[in-house]
Amino acid sequence: MRTQNRKYTFREFLADDGFVRIARLAEKGDRRELDALLQAHPQAAREIRTACVLLRSVRPAGPGPSRERIARSLDEVRRRALRNRRFRVFCRWSAVAAAVLLVGLTGYYVSLEQDRAFERQIAASLRFGSIPSDSIVVAVGDREVCKLGDARATVGQDERGLVVNERQRIRSEQLRSEMIRVSVPYGKRTVVDLEDGTRVWVGPGSKLIYPARFGSGKRELYADGEAYFEVAHDARRPFVVTTEKLQVRVLGTQFNLSSGYGSDRAEVVLVEGRVRVHSASGRTEELLPDQRYLESAAGAVVDTVDTESFTAWKEGYLLLGRSDLAALFGKIGRYYGVEIHCDEALGRRTCDGKLELCDRVEEVLRNLAMVEPFDIECTQSEKPVYLLTAKTLSPM
User: Fold this and answer.
1) Which of 289, 342, 349, 363 sits at 20 to 30 Å (Cα–Cα) from 211?
2) Is the pLDDT of residue 271 over 90?
3) Domain residue limits, the chain
């Protein structure tokens, strides 16, 4: 059967046990078969990635459902999957839906209604494309409603609709039940006030996708990149943030989240309250204030940290804390989306204090060079690359 021009949906991939096996292998670090599938079907890449993220979203919900409920759910998903199954992509397809199979094996369960809402979030995020290059973009559904050049824009919400920079308004009737998406370019940040009173600082090179109105159940949204959350307490409606690698569940708290799409590093730093972190690898951790959950290629750890050094970016500065310059240049590069390389002598130097995050990376580097002298050379490729060379310090 010819498949090259066939348009697959993430639901069809989820209905295939062969694809589920490939996705689970990729979660464990073996991406060979998944990469081969992506290469063979580039036109389906976003649907494949959506299916992978959805598989990771299944989380424990207390004691498992009854055998009868599992059977009913399995029959329901099987009927949905079989209704449109007319293809073979990579391996032998079956009628077993992956999420419900996982329910049956481990006691995991996510309702069909919650799945549909979450699918819309993830699909919207992946359709939205790359991070904008210069302006903060606010979109409703598939429509861009405004672009903001201000490096510190605000997006708010009241009973009359969405308010951007305290003056530009998108009326409630225009929002309907659409998803709102805020995309922030590198070197900028924005504040988003949600309708429940939660405030979110969205960092550079990051995206936030959330509903115009939360329902009566959990308050769920999707984040890609870095964001700081100040969550309004609501005991009846848990607050859930989902990323590619993690899901964070809270009632009311403050925490910093960093988990970029395609990155092997994910991090949650708790400032106040308590959160439960669910990892795509199956690990679950409850954090207390001043604790950090860090997951990388080397594994996952929980440690105690100085939270200000992780959250200062939302106030417009980096806390140096006697860090070596090599580590500091790495943070600056991630904030502005550029590459920064320094020689060994410069990288070993340390500095203390606070570093203001200016609108342009060149300003930041020049300010730093006034304290720890170094030469700056910039070359252009796909993105700017800065080469920094230490200057010899004159004896006092």
Assistant:
1) 289
2) yes
3) 10-110, 123-309, 316-390
Distance (Å, whole) CA 143 – CA 212: 14
344: left (phi over 0), alpha (psi -120 to 50) or beta: alpha
Mean pLDDT is lowest, of 28-42, 130-144, 372-386, for 130-144
Residue with tokens 């070359």, as numbered in its chain: 379
Checking DSSP bridges between strand 152-158 and strand 246-250, what pairing results, if any?
Answer: unpaired
Q: What is the DSSP letter of 128?
A: T
List, in sequence order, every beta strand (DSSP E) within 159-279: 161-164, 168-171, 179-184, 189-193, 199-202, 206-211, 219-230, 239-242, 246-250, 254-259, 266-272, 275-279
C-alpha to C-alpha distance for 289 and 292, rounded to whole angstroms: 9
Residue range 119-145: average pLDDT?
66
Going by C-alpha positions, the residue among 176, 249, 170, 182 that lies closest to residue 209 is 182
pLDDT score of 225 more than 80: yes
Query: Is 2.60.120.1440 the CATH number for 123-309?
Result: yes
* pLDDT tens digits, 305-357: 999 999 999 999 998 877 789 989 999 999 998 999 999 999 999 888 889 99
Residues of the chain above pLDDT 90, percent: 30
Q: Are 270 and 288 in contact (CB under 8 A)?
A: yes
Domain 316-390 listed as CATH 3.55.50.30: yes
Domains 123-309 and 316-390 share a fold: no
Please count the other Cβ atoms lying within 10 Å of the Cβ belonging to residue 306. Answer: 13
- pLDDT for 172: 62
